[in-house]
Amino acid sequence: MVEWGMNMELKNDFRELKVWQKCRDIRVTIWKLCKKFTAEEKHRLIDQ
Length: 48
What we know:
mainly alpha, 3 helices, about 0% strand
């Protein structure tokens, strides 16, 4: 039974996971927000 569960996990694509989808949405949102930053703000963010 355990082997069957492991095989099922291997067949599924990680992109189907809800947690991966949510993290991707958050990443895209952060990327869009950071894109609006001025050059100085981007430089300070990179230094952190």
